Amino acid sequence: MIVGVGIDVVGVDRFAETMQRTPALRERLFTPAERERSVQSLAARFAAKEALAKALGAPGDLEWHDAEVESEDSGRPRLVLTGTVAARASAVGAATWHLSLSHDAGIASAVVVLEGS
Predict the structure, then answer these.
(1) Domains defined along the chain, listed by start
(2) Is 50 annotated as a binding residue?
(3) Which residues form a coiled coil (predicted)?
(4) pLDDT at 54 over 90
């Protein structure tokens, strides 16, 4: 049973400008492993975190580092939830989650689907 769906899109150029203007955002938004990625990849990961928050009902108390986007050996992205985000996922009954990322034509996008047991 689906318990949440979220989608988000991010303009890569605008995101890059914001990151240049406010360098501290890189640390605030991303885990150390995520920070090493390209700006297109970071924009997609930001979209993933936003999409996840929407799928969880957009509570205001989620910590950015409690949702990390990792890549499997195949390149497939996956969400790793800890702390505040894992607690919220449990509260809404999410047992598994699915993530799709894309970046093309200057836009990064992400879709998150939460499934209950």
Answers:
(1) 2-116 (3.90.470.20)
(2) yes
(3) none
(4) yes
